[in-house]
């Protein structure tokens, strides 16, 4: 045991009226919502990178956090793991997620870095034997080191491609060893800053081949989890190839991978792409590629990905409404890809940020479930498209322009506009949130 979270109790559910800040007001893991325990609906995960590896910097300032595990060496990496699992226990978190570079120190060469990862994975495994926390997904950091300044899979240097492939293999091996339920590819620098030095066609082919190798390795090793891509539109690159869900789907179709790979959608990335979070979730579900989510929020007055903890229950409600409509998570879950503010220096801040985020999501889930169970929104949506249920309307989709044009004149069709009822529907949503 460490003393980093000294005197912080395990967080329990005490209900909406509690004044205890170290308690859940809305997240009751055992509460049944639409026939399933709340914990099994939400499948919360703690992000290893933001919670334990981030030093508190921003684009204009460096480290503000002082942590006893900051530094190099396996001993400090194991202290970090000790603290992490203590926090998982305090929160009752069912899952965590990590990049390789979050968990192990960088070695003098690839082989040493791989051995460091294997050692810390074994240490994770020992801790998981006495913990209820499991691995939601693992991933590789292919963006922080200067070698990745021009991308990983899309890099013009084949040696960087090779290094990246070897890194992903090691991280997939680690994920499988820990029985992770997914593996995520986050193309943090898979993009370009200027077309003057970029061959778009070549880089796309490299990215497609790289992803195909990942899928092949999944099947070769018998990994049963999902392979996920996390869309991101910009920052740090001017334009990134995995811009949004629609772009990722087009990429998957191009390389015949739409049946093999799904998406991990982040709220902050959806906003940067000019979409809403619920739009990206609904689109992914409609395309059959919805997998998991990274839960956070951006500061809407800032132009970058601020990764703040969610605190807007009405906004989050619409996201979980689309998740419930899609049938809920299977292997995916709610990963808090969120970090405390650089001025939030105390261990308590880290705990309370997660408490607030978990409560926000739980409150939103209950609102979304109530709205879906009520059925009014779905009924009104169905009524709007009811005309398409008629046999002649369905037949029209199998017809041709000339036949349709003849029918319009023969039958004197003269359509009149119908209200979309947007304000009514917004008022309906507000009854539940």
TrEMBL record:
The answer on whether this UniProt entry bears the keyword Isomerase reads yes
Q: Where is the active site?
A: 99, 102
| Residues binding Mg(2+) 1 | 230, 266, 294, 337
Q: Which reaction does it catalyse?
A: alpha-D-xylose = alpha-D-xylulofuranose
Enzyme nomenclature, EC number: 5.3.1.5
Recite the UniProt cofactor note for this protein.
Binds 2 magnesium ions per subunit.
Please provide the record's keywords in A-Z order: Carbohydrate metabolism, Cytoplasm, Isomerase, Magnesium, Metal-binding, Xylose metabolism
Single GO MF annotation = xylose isomerase activity
Top enzyme category:
isomerase
Cofactor (UniProt): Mg(2+)
Q: What is this protein called?
A: Xylose isomerase
Q: Which organism is it from?
A: Albidovulum sediminicola
* Encoding gene, per UniProt annotation: xylA
């Amino acid at each position: 045991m460490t003393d980093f979270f000294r005197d912080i109790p395990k967080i329990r559910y005490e209900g909406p009226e509690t004044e205890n800040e170290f308690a859940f007001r809305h997240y009751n893991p055992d509460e049944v919502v639409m026939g399933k325990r709340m914990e099994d609906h939400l499948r919360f995960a703690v992000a290893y990178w933001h919670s334990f590896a981030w030093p508190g910097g921003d684009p204009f300032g460096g480290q503000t956090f002082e942590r006893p595990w900051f530094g190099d060496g396996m001993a400090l990496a194991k202290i970090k793991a000790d603290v992490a699992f203590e926090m998982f226990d305090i929160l009752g978190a069912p899952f965590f997620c990590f990049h390789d570079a979050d968990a192990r120190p960088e070695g003098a060469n690839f082989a040493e870095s791989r051995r460091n990862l294997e050692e810390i994975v074994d240490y994770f495994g020992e801790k998981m034997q006495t913990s209820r926390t499991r691995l939601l997904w693992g991933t590789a950091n292919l963006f922080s080191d200067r070698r990745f300044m021009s991308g990983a899979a899309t890099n013009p240097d084949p040696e960087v491609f090779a290094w990246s492939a070897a890194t992903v293999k090691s991280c997939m091996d680690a994920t499988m060893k820990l029985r992770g339920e997914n593996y995520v590819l986050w193309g943090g620098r898979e993009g370009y800053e200027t077309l003057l030095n970029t061959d778009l066609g070549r880089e796309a082919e490299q990215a497609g081949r790289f992803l195909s190798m990942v899928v092949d390795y999944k099947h070769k090793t018998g990994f049963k989890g999902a392979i996920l891509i996390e869309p991101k539109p910009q920052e740090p690159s001017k334009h990134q190839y995995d811009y949004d869900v629609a772009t990722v789907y087009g990429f998957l179709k191009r390389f015949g991978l739409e049946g093999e790979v799904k998406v991990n959608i982040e709220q902050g990335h959806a906003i940067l792409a000019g979409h809403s979070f619920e739009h990206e979730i609904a689109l992914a579900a409609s395309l059959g590629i919805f997998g998991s989510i990274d839960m956070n929020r951006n500061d809407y007055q800032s132009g970058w990905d601020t990764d703040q903890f969610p605190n807007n229950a009405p906004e989050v409600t619409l996201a979980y409404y689309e998740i419930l409509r899609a049938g809920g998570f299977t292997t995916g879950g709610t990963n808090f890809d969120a970090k405390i503010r650089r001025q939030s220096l105390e261990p308590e801040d880290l705990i309370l940020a997660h408490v607030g985020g978990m409560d926000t999501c739980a409150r939103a889930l209950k609102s979304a479930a109530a709205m879906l169970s009520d059925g009014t929104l779905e009924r009104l949506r169905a009524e709007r498209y009811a005309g398409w249920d008629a046999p002649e309307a369905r037949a029209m989709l199998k017809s041709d322009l000339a036949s349709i044009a003849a029918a319009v004149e023969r039958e004197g069709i003269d359509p009149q506009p119908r209200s979309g009822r947007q304000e009514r529907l917004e008022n309906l949503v507000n009854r539940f949130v």
